Amino acid sequence: LDFTPSPHKHFVDKHRVELTKRVSNIAPILDELLDNEVIDQETYTRIRALSTTQDKMRELYIGPLQAAACKKIFYDILLKNEKFLVKELSEKD
């Protein structure tokens, strides 16, 4: 088995732990995911009801962020809403 990380791992996957810990303003991100039809109203309501931002991020990762197309949209939304965090993590790559 080869455990070396793929050099083509998506930013969203590569930085999953840091993003889960450090994304601070999840509400506008969820709003945009709903607008872009990455999540439906039911998922949006369920995630919004979770008590911590970390739980909300984990829920996104186990659901919608499994799909490559969703990762791209999520990344673009992150870039808009968490610009400095994305920049900092990109510099670590």
Automatic annotation (TrEMBL):
Record domain CARD: where: 4-60
CDD domains in the record: CARD_ASC_NALP1
One Pfam assignment: CARD
GO cellular component terms attached to this protein's record: cytosol
Protein name per its UniProtKB record: CARD domain-containing protein
Keyword annotations from UniProtKB, A to Z: Cytoplasm, Immunity, Inflammatory response, Innate immunity
Entry-linked PROSITE patterns: CARD
Lineage, opening ranks: Eukaryota, Metazoa, Chordata, Craniata, Vertebrata
Top-level taxon of the source organism: Eukaryota
Protein species of origin: Maylandia zebra (zebra mbuna)
Biological processes per GO annotation: inflammatory response; innate immune response; regulation of apoptotic process
